[in-house]
């Protein structure tokens, strides 16, 4: 049927008139209006009639073709209508049943809801009645406690706290019967708050722990503990700030100074004072004393407050009050107070110094006195903390002085840091000014006097004595003193003549430059001695400060050494030049009886050396002070002379028995030549021992020398080998001859190579050169002394390798 119908529909769809009737949004009025506007109504009607005829034909054909299906559908509609009627009857029965159930349930529910609401209201009413009854009891009890005075104030506060807990979450403002009680509670709250605050202030001021504890207990019950404690700390700081400002007020200090000046006697007018007057200074330090007392008292009050907070507990939870404050980050009351106090003191002192020149000069000029006041404050606080009892649970009392991350003493001293810096700058200026005044007119012709030196010592002693009030300040001043000592040493070194012929000549009498050097040596030595006396006394109580100054005095010793060393070096060079002339004398003469006597004459070079050393002692060394550097320099000069004598004596060739006697006599006269230097020869150490040990070895055979216990321990192997070269034939040349050196060059090489091993290697080279020479000439034997020398050399080399 669908296929047959589709032909008619396709025909309608292709026609412009019919297809309008196929649209879903077909509008009959619109189609009629369009037909009227086209003025072809008859044509449209004919067209519509034709279309209706086509549709009738198509409907007739469809009904004829499918009449059986249409009849079946018509009978099915009747069956559906019967089923719908049955369903409607069932729905009506169900609705009636639900209405009956609703009538049975709604009424009991409404009754139950009403009774439940009544019960809740009844319970609420009973709770309010119980609360009101309890409130009446609390108010009655609290009235009695309030009449008991201060002894029952804690109980009254606890009753008020209980009433607050009772009224929490309940509004009784509309109940007339309790309005009077509520008013009593409000009045009691205000009264207890006022009494608690006043008791806390009085207890803190009088340092009455019982009173403070009672006040804290009251404020805790009123839930005002934290704000009132913080308020008390702030008010204490503000009072201290006012006290500091009053103590540093120039106007107030002038009034005090004028008052004290005017009270000296009748008939004297009160003269205005200035900041530099003694009366003003006295008033200032009196005010500072009172200020320190106030600060100490405030610290004690805050410390006691924290102690009481650490003891008192909540009577219900048994939590310490201090722990309650720690929950909100306010547990370190004393530490917070100290931080604020240090900052306040630093700001106020800086402000006062900036606003008043008089105060700044007083504090900077008498800073040790101010520091002494602060140190006294700290010692008082330490004593108070040492007397702090343990808390109630056996734990230690409140401590803040010994905490690792908190250094209150450094913070207290830090408040004076700008003043300390200014004072140290002034101290250094005073020390340097004393040195500049003493050395301002000094030159190599005009040297500092004893009075100039006394002025420097007085300045140093004064600075150290004034700074002894504090070990830290003493160390800082000691650094200034050390800087001044370095300055003095540098200035004296500039005045000294260290170069040129006038300073280094050793043949004539002392020149002006050398006399100036001697005067500077005496000045530096006297300064060093008096400084040692000062440091050894009670002027410097700090060992660290004394150590700093002693370390600086080493620069004075260095300058003394730098002044004497050039002349000593020139003397040493002249001594070596004189000793070197021994090689121009004849030591190959045979022995005579006169040479064997103790008073045998010495060599010409030794007589010249004796005269030269005596001249140096009389003209140079006698004018030097007995300083450590001078003593050590003369000792080194004597050791050097002995070393040179022994060295060049070992190089003498040829050496006969008479020559040995002369060398032995020279050794004895050498001891007498060094006597004018004033140095005990026994203190010279190894050089003197070598000289004494070598004298008997001069007359022993090579075999005995090789077996001598002195060899190696006292007399070096290389030195003894040099002596044995003199007993050998000329073919066995000395080391300097084998190297084609002069004796002076060889002596310089020995000075540069102090290692015994290096010297033995050079000796071995000379001996190997001798062996090659013998082999080249095809000699059959070596000199008798050679095997002994070889044995000594091998033994020495073995010891060096070990």
TrEMBL record:
Residues 175-205 form a coiled coil. It comes from the Eukaryota. It is found in: Golgi apparatus membrane. It is a peripheral membrane protein. Keywords: Coiled coil, Golgi apparatus, Membrane. GO terms for biological process: intra-Golgi vesicle-mediated transport. Residues 19-141 form the Conserved oligomeric Golgi complex subunit 5 N-terminal domain. The keyword Transmembrane does not apply. InterPro entries: Cog5, COG5_helical, COG5_N. Its main location: Golgi. Residues 172-378 form the Conserved oligomeric Golgi complex subunit 5 helical domain. The keyword Membrane applies. GO terms for cellular component: Golgi membrane; Golgi transport complex. This is Conserved oligomeric Golgi complex subunit 5.
